[in-house]
């Protein structure tokens, strides 16, 4: 009979439930959202099968493999669409594609409709989009082990992927090694509570009034290293939270609050690895091969068995890869050998509050920087700001005087400044309104000795609003006429801004969202320069709205009255006089839609 004397003795794999032929084992969910086995003694025959499949009980028996050291690679899928949709480099997809090609079955974690997580096994290749990508909360494997065994006994080829503890449980459940089975696990730092993850998703509805219909960890649109979580709401709005903004990630990665108790004393660390193949993020790829470092995600691949090596060779044509010394991977992947440190907050109090508080309130109480961390952040901010001022102004007299003239001391101390480079011509009228939140670099230069002029004019009663860091490159001409409003949403990405020779002429309203990339010689204008036509519906000015994360390519022109949807791309030299749908690519003169559902990264 399975016995759990304390919670860190159970990894929640669920294999004991699948092996029990008397249905004596059910699972109870505790206050933290994790499940543990309950034995109905009236049904139990004390056959001990449940103990024989427990990976923790049998760790010394199942922790073995036939390669002395793992054979390691850095790799990425050749298909960029797959890489974009994957957590790392898309290697799980490459492996799964081989099994599907052989008419076999692939198993792994998928989201249910309510974003609970379960393990699915299927021979339908259309399920691959659900199977790929890490889910970052524990999956339920009830019934999964039985299905895997049925397929194996029917001589079907099977590839499955899961946490190291789950795949160890599969080894114990099956007892024998099957030649038609490939087991894949991943470098696991610790698995999070499904209850906490659900509360995090619920926080979007609490904040924005619409439920989540799509969730993606490590979305690539802001780069792999940003650790961005993307959600889409039922009303069509999309939100991105980078690792520095995402309180769920911070509670997991910084504070170790809500992983399963067994993760803090994990029995599945170290070597040999139990799986045939282990996958993970390849941190440090820039030191190995810059051609694989696109900031889209690179996979670490560890081949742990001869069978795994033979299988990996089938996938070689689908991937780009380089061999890596075994010793190199250890420094960048401490989770290979080390369990989680204990939570740095009161875990009992956290889960008590979780039942009574919204996740946003929980985050304010627990997931926050302490005074020491806040002081370090402030010091780093000042040092970064001083360095940026020095590099931008080059300590030239005119830009230093402009810096002093157009910024209040209190704003400089907060890091909210208009920062001019040399050879800027600035004309901001006394009744103009500047609202700068972040560093607005004017005349940013790639060629430091260039004397190319940059111009900024803000008329009487006009408003220039900068909501985050943003840069305008040299040779640009920005004019905000009297009474008009120009807004830049700015962004956290260093590429948020314009390239050389940008022209923005604002006579009424131009609203430019966050994380915008503006190419060379781009023109944006909301007016026709005061010229009038003898047409009833004609207007000299009409607002221009450019939503978040739009890419305006070289030489394109955005005319008055245009609305450009989120994530859209305007191709080089396109002339845009009509609205552009979200996530579309438009090109030509006049611009027309050439592609849809496009995602892009800086």
Overall mean pLDDT stands at 95
Tally of distinct domains: 3
- Give unreliable regions as ranges: none
Number of strands: 35
Can you list the strand order of the major beta sheet?
5-4-6-7-11-12-3-13
Beta-strand content bin:
25-35%
Fraction of helical residues: 10-25%
Shape annotation? elongated
Q: How many angstroms does the end-to-end distance come to?
A: 56 Å
Q: Main β-sheet, in a few words?
A: 8 strands, mixed
Structural class of the secondary structure composition? alpha/beta
Number of helices: 17
* Rg (C-alpha, Å): 28 Å
Question: What is the topological layout?
Answer:
Elements (H helix, E strand, L loop, with lengths): L14 H5 L5 E5 L5 E5 L9 H4 L6 H4 L8 E7 L2 H5 L6 H11 L3 E7 L5 E6 L5 H4 L12 H10 L4 E5 L1 H11 L6 E6 L7 H15 L3 E8 L8 E6 L4 E4 L5 H7 L23 E5 L17 E5 L2 H9 L4 E6 L1 H7 L14 H8 L4 H8 L4 H23 L3 H9 L3 H5 L3 E4 L3 E5 L4 E4 L2 E6 L9 E5 L4 E4 L3 E4 L3 E4 L4 E6 L6 E2 L4 E4 L2 E6 L2 E2 L4 E3 L18 E3 L4 E2 L4 E2 L4 E2 L4 E2 L4 E2 L8 E3 L4 E4 L7
Parallel strand pairs: 4-6, 6-7, 7-11, 14-17, 15-18, 16-19, 17-20, 18-21, 19-22, 21-24, 22-25, 23-26, 24-27, 25-28, 26-29, 27-30, 28-31, 29-32, 30-33, 32-34
Antiparallel strand pairs: 1-2, 3-12, 3-13, 4-5, 8-9, 9-10, 11-12, 34-35
């Amino acid at each position: 009979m399975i016995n759990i004397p304390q919670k860190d003795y159970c990894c929640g794999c669920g294999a004991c439930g699948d092996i029990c032929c008397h249905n004596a084992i059910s699972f109870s969910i505790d206050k933290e959202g994790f499940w543990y086995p309950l034995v109905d003694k009236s049904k139990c025959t004390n056959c001990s099968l449940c103990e024989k499949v427990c990976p923790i009980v049998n760790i010394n028996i199942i922790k073995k493999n036939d390669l002395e050291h793992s054979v390691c690679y850095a790799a990425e899928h050749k298909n960029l669409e797959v890489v974009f949709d994957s957590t790392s480099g898309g290697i799980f997809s490459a492996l799964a594609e081989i099994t599907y090609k052989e008419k076999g079955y692939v198993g792994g974690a998928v989201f249910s409709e309510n974003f609970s997580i379960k393990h699915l096994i299927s021979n339908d290749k259309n399920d691959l989009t659900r199977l790929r990508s890490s889910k970052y909360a524990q999956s339920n494997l009830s019934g999964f082990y039985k299905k895997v065994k049925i397929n194996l006994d029917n001589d079907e080829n099977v590839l499955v992927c899961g946490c190291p503890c789950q795949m160890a449980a599969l080894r114990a459940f099956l007892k024998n090694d099957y030649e038609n089975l490939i087991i894949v696990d991943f470098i696991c730092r610790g698995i999070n509570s499904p209850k906490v993850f659900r509360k995090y998703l619920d926080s979007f509805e609490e904040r924005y009034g619409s439920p989540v219909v799509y969730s993606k960890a490590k979305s690539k649109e802001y780069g792999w290293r940003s650790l961005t979580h993307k959600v889409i709401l039922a009303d069509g709005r999309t939100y991105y939270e980078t690792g520095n903004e995402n309180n769920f990630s911070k509670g997991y990665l910084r504070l170790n609050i809500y992983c399963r108790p067994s993760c803090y004393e994990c029995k599945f660390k170290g070597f040999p690895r139990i799986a045939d193949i282990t996958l993970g993020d390849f941190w440090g790829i820039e030191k190995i091969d810059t051609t694989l470092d696109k900031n889209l995600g690179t996979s670490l691949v560890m081949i742990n068995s001869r069978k795994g090596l033979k299988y990996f060779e089938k996938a070689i044509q689908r991937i780009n890869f380089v061999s890596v010394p075994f010793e190199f991977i250890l420094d960048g992947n401490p989770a290979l050998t080390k369990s989680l440190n204990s939570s740095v907050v009161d875990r009992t109090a956290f889960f008590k509050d979780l039942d009574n508080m919204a996740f946003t309130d929980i985050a304010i109480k627990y997931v926050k920087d302490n005074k020491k961390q806040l002081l370090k952040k402030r010091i780093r901010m000042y040092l970064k700001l001083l360095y940026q001022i020095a590099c931008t102004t080059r300590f030239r007299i005119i830009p230093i005087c402009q810096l002093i003239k157009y910024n209040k001391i209190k704003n400089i101390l907060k890091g909210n400044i208009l920062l001019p480079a040399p050879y800027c011509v600035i004309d901001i009228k006394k009744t103009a309104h500047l609202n700068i939140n972040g560093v607005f670099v004017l005349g940013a230069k790639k060629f430091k000795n260039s004397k190319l002029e940059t111009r900024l004019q803000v008329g009487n009663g006009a408003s220039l609003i900068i909501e985050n860091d943003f840069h305008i490159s040299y040779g640009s001409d920005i004019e905000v006429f009297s009474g008009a409003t120009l807004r830049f949403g700015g962004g956290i990405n260093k590429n948020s801004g314009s390239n050389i020779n940008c022209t923005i002429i604002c006579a009424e309203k131009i609203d430019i969202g966050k994380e915008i990339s503006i190419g060379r010689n781009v023109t944006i204008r909301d007016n026709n320069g005061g010229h009038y036509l003898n047409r009833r519906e004609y207007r000299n000015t009409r607002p221009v709205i450019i939503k978040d994360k739009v890419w305006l390519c070289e030489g394109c022109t955005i005319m008055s009255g245009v609305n450009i949807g989120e994530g859209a791309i305007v191709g080089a030299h396109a002339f845009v006089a009509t609205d552009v749908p979200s996530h579309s690519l438009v090109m030509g003169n006049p611009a027309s839609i050439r592609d849809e559902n496009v995602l892009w990264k800086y």
